[in-house]
Amino acid sequence: MRSFFIFILLCGAVGRCFAETEHATTILEAPVYLTPDTNSQKIGDVPRGGELAILEKSNNFVHVLAQLTAERSVTGWMEDKGVVRTTTPNADAILFGEASADEHEAEKRAGRKNAAQDALRLYGWIGEFLPAAPRAGEASYRAADIRWQLEKAENVGRPSNKEKDPYMRNLMNEDYLHKVEKKFPGTKWADLAAWDLVDNKLCGDWQGDPKCPEKETAIYLKYADAHPNSPRLSEAIYDAAWRQAAAMDLYRGKHDDKKAAAAGTRAIDLLERIKSSDDYAAQGARLLYMLQQNIPVYEYIPE
User: Fold this and answer.
1) pLDDT tens, residue by residue, 45-80
2) CA dist., res. 123 & res. 279, Å (int)
3) By Cβ atoms counted within 10 A, which residue in 2, 11, 159, 241 is the most buried?
4) CA nearest to 231, candidates 266, 196, 184
5) Measured on CA atoms in the order 144, 147, 149, 152, is the torsion positive or negative?
6) pLDDT tens, residue by residue, 255-277
C-alpha cells in the first residue's frame, strides 16, 4: 500500500497523473490494457482487492493506476466491470461479501489458489478507504487475522518454532493487529486482535518445564482481566485452567506434590469462572471431571 501512494505522489510530481482520482478496487481478477480496448496489449492483472486510483473514464473502460503486487504498480485501462468505488452505494457490504466468499473458498480442499490473500486485500481495502463504514472494524480485524494466520502457518514447520522462549522463534508481525486496536478501541474487534497477539507470547515446546504453563496461565488471565467483554473471555479462562492442570501433571513428574496440589486447586477455581451458558462450559466440565478422577491431562515424553 505504501508503494502505491508513493507512486501516486511521483506521478503527480512529473505531471503524469490526473488532478483528481477516485479510490476503487475490484471484486474480479481483471486484466489491465495499454489502451481502452480488449484487443490491445495486456500489461498486467489486478487481483481481487487490488488498489485502484481511477484517473478517467471512457465508455465502458476506466483509466487506472493499479497496484498489481506489493512491488509493481502500472497505469492502464480496464473494463469498468466489478470495479467498486468509495462512492459505490453499499460498497462495504459488496466488498465484505466478496471477501467472505473468498475466505470460504480458501477453506475448501481444492479451493481457488490465493483466495485467502484475495480476502485479505478486500477486507483491508474496506478498513483503509471506508473507515466510517459499519463493517470497517470487522473488516480491518479480519484482514489482520488472515495475515496473522498465514504467517503462523508458515512458522509451524520451522525448527525454531519449538524453542521454549518465544523470542527465540520467528514471531508474527504484530503491526496490523495493533492498528486494529488503535483504530477501533473498546470494540469486539480490538478484543479479538488482542487475542491473536497472545500467540507471540506463548512458549514453544514446554520441554517438560512447569514454568511454561505457569507463565501461560498468567498471560491468559491478564487477557481476561483486560478484556472482560471479549468473545474469547471464557476460552481464555479455560486455557488458563487447562495449563494449571498440565502444570499439576508436570509437578507430579518432578515429585513436587505441594506445587502439584496448588496447581490443581487453582485449575478448579478458574473453571468456576466460566459462564454456564458458554460453549466452553462443557469443556470445563470435562476438565473438572478429569481433575476429580485424577486423570492426567498432559504427559511429557522427552525426545
Assistant:
1) 999 999 999 999 999 999 999 999 989 999 999 999
2) 28
3) 241
4) 196
5) negative
6) 999 999 999 999 999 999 998 77
The dihedral through the CA atoms of 32, 34, 37, 42 has a sign that is negative
pTM of the model: 0.88
Separation between Cα atoms, residue 160 and residue 175, nearest integer Å: 22
State how far the Cα of 177 lies from the Cα of 184, in Å rounded to an integer: 11
How many residues belong to the chain?
303
**Spatial CB neighbours of 52, under 8 Å, sequence gap ≥ 6:** 23, 24, 25, 26, 46, 62, 64, 65, 66, 67, 83
Q: Side-chain half-sphere of 26: how many Cα atoms within 13 Å?
A: 26
Inter-residue contact 192 to 230 (CB < 8 Å): yes
DSSP assignment of 27-74 equals: SS-EEEESSSSTTS-EEEEEPTT--EEEEEEETTEEEEEEE-SSS-EE
**Closest by Cα among 108, 109, 106 to 119:** 106
Contacts of 197 (CB under 8 A, 6+ apart): 174, 177, 178
The Cα-based distances of 109 to 104, 115, 149, 239, 294 in angstroms read: 10, 12, 17, 30, 40
